[in-house]
Write a structure and sequence with these properties.
The protein is an alpha+beta fold and about 600 residues long. Helices cover about 50% and strands about 20% of the residues.
Amino acid sequence: MHTRLKFPLRFKMLLSQLLVVSVVLSLITFTMANLFQVDKTAYIHDLTSTVVLHTAEEANALLAGYRERLKLFGRVLAEPELSGRDQVLQGFFEEFRDFVLVTRSGPGGEQTVYDGAALQAAGVTKEEIVANLHAHPAPESIPAGQVYLVNSTLSRKLPTLTLTISEPAAGGTPVVTTAVLRLDRLQELAKRSRVFDIFLLDSAGRYLAHKAPDRVGVAANLEWWNRVKAPRSSGMTMEYKNLGKEMVGGFSRCSLGGLVVGVEIPKSAAYLTSRELLSDLLLLSLALLGGAALLSQFWSRNFTSPLEKLSEATRMVGQGRFEIEVKAESGDEIGALARSFNQMAAELKVREKALKDLYGQLVHSEKMAAFGSLGAGIAHEVKNPLAGILGITQLSLRGAGAGHPLEKNLLIIEKETKRCKTIIEHLLKFARQEQVEFSEVDLQQVVADALAIVDHQLGINSIKVEQELEPGMPTCRGNANQLQQVLMNLMLNAQQAMSGKTGTVKLSARRLEKGGVELRVADDGPGIRKEIQGKIFDPFFTTKPAGQGTGLGLSVTYGIVKDHGGEIHLESEEGVGTTFIITLPPSAAANG
């Protein structure tokens, strides 16, 4: 007899999940490493482009400053009769410390001024520098506003560059002004970054400034110089080899002097972080798989027990025993399921009670509907006797004549009878069952009709009614009877909320700038708590004591406003009052 090994379902599920997790985690690891490498490379390209453009702007601004100062030297040199000219020129050298020597040649000959202290400190003579300038003359024609730059270093103690500008003269022969400048400021630009190698190349491809001083004056690597010797001023990035290293470089041309600004970084910088990320992910994956394998047995033992308890509890709920509670001992999904089950059982118990209460409210609603029909019938029957009383009163007034002792009493009877007759007519009109049809509605008349019905009700409860109706309001398309019901519901709700206390209900209407109208029903009652403001339009939701409301008034009001294409919302603050704001769209005639 062979004994078959039994593998519980939970154990099979855990093994399958471990296998799936292993494969997915491996794919995610390698995909993330590859995407990170691509993203890192693109980031380095973008960062290189940003750095080179920023450096090119700084270099261009520096050269522009040199050009303007050289023009200033030239103007002073062109004035031999200027009083104190030597002192002015010496002051320039003290202020503009980058300038070592300035020479100007034109129709009047050649004039040279220099900073003797700087030359002496570097061990270079004026004659050596002038001879070097003559040995490497500038081009015969330099475009107006441009400069010609070349490295002119004669001593390691005094690395310099030559900057030449040309300006037209009155006789037609151009005036050429040349300055020998320290390279210190350009070298500072090259040494600014600790991450990138920044350098400046002249138009011949020689290093003018570099982080490594021994590169200054040396020709660039021809392997990639031909590819970058004419970059755009907006910058460009590329990958290349420099001295056998894979590099990512950015290049931009300055608008002055034909300088090329370069920024480079080893491409391995992009791979270094991705290799570290890959190693970390692999180690983390192995740790996760090992931990999952060790804990699988413990989890499997605790997996089915809570499910069995939940199954038994579910059968009890099916029998109507909602007081059942399952202990949620764990903090995982099973525990969350147990807590959800307990919450469901509690809510079912509450809803069972709510359904019983709802049934009672429906019975009360039917009773109120029957009472409304009975009231409408009584009002119809009372209307005829009132008409008779009004007629007899008016006949009595005619018979009594002016000044009769009974005239005052008869006039009061006539006025109050007409008022009762008007209220009953409005009540009958409101209670009349009619097919809901939309037409052009005069809102001022709707407001007047609603007030005519509830004014007495509000008055006897010490509620003052205020109106603020904007004259000339446009009509809207709707059903006058339903809109009247909306206003009556809101005003009666305000009166009931005040619980017999003195107060004010303000009814206002105005035209909206974007078209349509806005109705406001505001009271200075106790207000509505914030935690229930979002529920007041729900059917059968009420804050009134049992027997005083069905919770349908505001729900019906909300439905009527929506049927009219409008919006209703409230603004309420406890102790201050409540305002219901209704916006109705303009009628088709108003739109046309």
